Amino acid sequence: MKELEPKTKVLFVITKSNWGGAQKYVFEIANGLDRKIFEPVVALGGDGELATKLRSSKIRIISLPSLGRDINPLRDAASFRDILRIVREERPDVVHLNSSKIGILGSLAARIVGVPKIIFTAHGWAFNEERSLLSRMAIKLLYFITIALCDTTIAVSKAVANDAPAWGIRSKIVMIHPPLSDETKQLDKPSAREHLAKSAPSLRGENRLWVGIVAELHKNKGITYAIEAMRDTDLQKNVVLVIVGAGEEKNVLENQVRASGLEQSVFFLGFHQDAAQFMQAFDIFLLPSITEAFGYVLLEAGFAGLPVVASSVGGIPEIIDDGKTGILISPRRHTLIRDMVNHLAESPTLRSSLGAALQAKVARSFSPEKIIVQTAKLYKQS
Fold this sequence. Notes:
Layout: E1 8-14, H1 21-32, E2 38-44, H2 49-56, E3 60-63, H3 73-90, E4 94-98, H4 100-113, E5 117-122, H5 133-149, E6 152-155, H6 158-163, E7 173-175, H7 189-197, E8 209-214, H8 223-229, H9 233-238, E9 239-244, H10 250-259, E10 266-270, E11 284-287, H11 296-303, E12 308-311, E13 327-329, H12 334-345, H13 348-365, H14 368-380
Parallel strand pairs: 1-2, 1-4, 2-3, 4-5, 5-6, 6-7, 8-9, 8-11, 9-10, 11-12, 12-13
Helix pairs in contact: 3-4, 4-5, 8-12, 11-13
């Protein structure tokens, strides 16, 4: 009787367990792998929604309480020790690293242990954020070391691949877009609005169009420019801005709304688990990011058939074809947000055509099956 080939153990490592783009990526890849061939295990910091979803999918998780996003030498040393211990205990065939800090710590630990295959997914480059020149140079060097230590670095967009600090080792970079979940379940418009309105009862019965932002409340998302655009009285007549998400900029943004007297036009609904299921609540989707490696949430908006206004940064133009599947604008330009949202608000036919075109592109170009097969091939390459 022929012996069964042993499963390929893939150890995913990610810093945070909230539900952002990188976490969705880890879940979709880990959950989509053929369990007859692969054994996925996920090591992660915290006990957020990613951990909950992994448990529900019967994927084993390993807690890394020492992990944190910010740089802290003592805590980072503890994280490295914990990662090294886990890699030694698990003896995976593949270590798949996600997030900047995990890239350098995890690749070094995996090399020390002698893991056969080390993969790093670049969900963006921290040196593109607003930092000092010295800080950006140091971060670039750390990324270069990470890429050098890994066998392959997956860039989630062409923009990320082009920006990679892979001097002399560019052959290690491959581009594979993140997959859209094939399990996305969306409520119809009345049900989605009723659910979201529980967080802001004054939205009930609102006759203006809903412009939605679903994002972590972080400077990189450019939400301050969307709020500034809402100061226009004509725009206030047409739309309300509905922001779903939590994050470090919450108080700053809420203060901006109060200082501008926009409490009846801008609504913060906080974090909602599985926010993608509420996309139908919106009439227009807005992503005014300053920097964006890919823009996973645009796939969810496209799945819902929403017309999109988004910044022309990073990987966003790989999803949105300006004038065909959405409208692209320059970042940090609240006047462009104002004008383009007003244009869509006054053009129901355009909203419909852009939404349908994006929906078709998402279904055609971002199927999870194709992307998981591409990634699984990397795991098996010798």
